[in-house]
Amino acid sequence: MPEAGVELELARAVTLGYEPSGEAGLIRCHSHGFPSPLARWHCHAEYELHLISATSGEAFVGDWIGTFDPGHLVLCGPQLPHHWRSLDAPPEGVAQRDLIIHFSQEPIFEAAEKIPEFVEAVDLLKRAQYGIEFFGMAESAERHWKAIDNARGLKRFSLFCELLANLAQCTDYRLLSGVQASGGNDIKAINHLAARIALDPSRDMSTAEVASELGMDAGRFGRLFRRATGYGFVNYLNRVRVNKACLLLMQTERQVVSICYEVGFNNLSNFNRQFLEIKGITPKEYRKRSQRRLEAGSDPAI
Prior knowledge:
The radius of gyration is 20 Å and the shape is globular. The model is unreliable at 1-6, 10-17 and 298-302 (pLDDT under 50). The protein has 2 domains: 7-175, Jelly Rolls (Sandwich), CATH 2.60.120.10; 201-296, Arc Repressor Mutant, subunit A (Orthogonal Bundle). With 302 residues, the protein is of the alpha+beta class. Helix 4 (138-150) runs antiparallel to helix 5 (153-169), helix 7 packs across helix 8 (218-229) and helix 9 (233-251) packs across helix 12 (283-296). The protein has helices at 21-24, 106-112, 119-127, 138-150, 153-169, 185-199, 207-213, 218-229, 233-251, 256-262, 268-279, 283-296; strands at residues 7-9, 27-34, 42-44, 47-52, 57-61, 64-68, 73-76, 82-86, 94-103, 132-134, 173-175. The protein is 45% helix and 18% strand. The strands form 3 sheets. It has a 6-stranded antiparallel sheet with strand order 2-9-4-7-10-11. It has 12 helices and 11 strands.
């Protein structure tokens, strides 16, 4: 399992495969295998376009928990925590699992003020603050990654703009997280808490207990938590637990009552009520629909 805290990257070591900023400029490409020191729960100040090229497993983006397979393509905004955990990697690991592009937002947002064509990219990047998963673009994204990785200067930038344009025009996508990344020390503390909840939603915790842990009174904590996540603390916790339950309903044949307790609910009736409120269907119906979609070969997520 990834570590319980979210790691904020202030600087990246070139020894881990990152291109030196002086050589790469705005766009920086890298790739790595699994396991790797880079495969962990973390966030950073840059946008990240992330393509999985091998293995399957669990993905964590903000408060979203789901599955991934080769071809999984996600664009994460700045400070949005994320992690991909392979569950079927061979004992010796895999040499290449992740193809990644990092880039800063400021030059693009500033350029859009003078160059109208960049407005399209800005709209895309604003959506990416919640994490965007794109469908049907894996092959194209991999070709672009290789071309960008091999290019430098204006040629690299033009290839990157072409990739951004393709992503901006893609209509087959979904927003992943209900959490929009935020800044400030108090908000960062809330983001650390949200990361911890995403990794272990079953832990019994109350608003008062968590507020005390962060050195806040319950009222201030509640306001900050809603500002950072868009949800009240209990509502957020229930949503993460339900997301985890969805994963177990899709991947296992375990009884609903067993899943209910594993994700942190203390009785089945409350679990069923929260699941219906959040997903619009019951856990049993969710399992039936996901099985039908898997049999049909389509995306099982609902």
